[in-house]
Amino acid sequence: MKKEEINLKEKIKSVAKEFLEKSKDKEIQIISHFDTDGIAAAAIMVSALKKLDRKFSLKIVKSLEEQFIYDLPNKLTLFLDLASGSLNHLKESKLEEIFIIDHHEIISEIPEKIRIINSELHDKQKISASCLTYLFCKELNESNKEFAKLGILGMIGDMLEKEIDKLNNGILEDGEIKRKRGLLIYPSTRPINRALEFSSSPYIPNVTGNIKGVLELLREVELAPKDGRYKSIVELNSEEMEKLVTGIMLRNPKAKNKEIIGDIFLIKLFNKLEDARELSAKINACSRFGESSIALQLCLEIPSAKKRAEAIHAKYKQELISGLNYASNAEKILGNKFVIINAKNHVKDTMIGTIASILSNSSLYEEGTIIITMAYYENKVKISSRIVGRNGRNAREILNSVIEKIGGEVGGHKNAAGCIISQKKEKEFLDFLKKNLELETIKI
Length: 444
What we know:
alpha/beta, inorganic pyrophosphatase (n-terminal core), Diaminopimelate Epimerase, Chain A, domain 1
């Protein structure tokens, strides 16, 4: 895919101008992804279009399947945080006016009828779809600066926080984000015993999901409750923090200090500073329980959504711990630098990607290992792949090489990708996948 000749800023400006003109007297259908980045992007866009008094509809989707695209009515269509992997289907669809704001890899030519903003086309910049959407909406109306915090929330939701300092477009300043250095266990603003019990990033062996292990760790590092309550991460002094980090590292010997200490981003929502990772987890929980509308309302700061999101998140955490326990004990297909966990009906398809991400960050596997998780839904199989560390094979290319042979949908990045296949193709998929993974190992 050839690189765009104009820079990203100019591209956003020109596409925003064209969008303003074309959407004047038309209804816009917005299709956005259901994760934190997609929901944050949708919240920014919905708010911006309301200010412009534009007519629009919104659909939040788990994935962009071929038939879904062909069934869309022929309206001006805006895709957020998806569609870069579906350009051929869009070309064949009846849609005539298509806008895409996305950051996923592009592997085919961009059809004439599509206007696309994608950071991959501009020196492969690492920026979330929500940040791109924010910059786009700021071009529509300067007053949309108030939604910058949602762009940063999407960056953190897509685990791009290490790229935040590379953003040279003022999003961090516009969003009035507070930043603190500390232990990367969230929520940093809640009692440490609760944060440790549900800590999935980092995953702490014999502590995550194990209240007995949590209390044992806290006793060892001499952190006791005061008036029946433990301190939160942000309340710990430097000596307490040092002891806790040591205790965690003793249980997770492959972990590096720099991986569990870092920047905590605090975002003001409902007039209160919240850990951005906790907010992202709540949004993801709502979407993965089929409550994307609650996730969207949370981003829009609609008061009734707050308690509902907290209740869903509590239930989600329990299910996630259960899924992690299943994945830890399940029979796995193991090879040289690859692990396949086929959960079938034992884990929700909406959680299988989260479990792959947690395992890839857990220090249980060596750098460069590809972790592939699978789960059933309806008559399909959802597949998620993650690379441990930053060096290794291209997860998207590996999945794509199999999907090209058997059919299905694939999308994502080098280090994190996913696909959907028919359950009838499950055995065929696994056979081709193992063969390709073994060939890749030999090539390396």
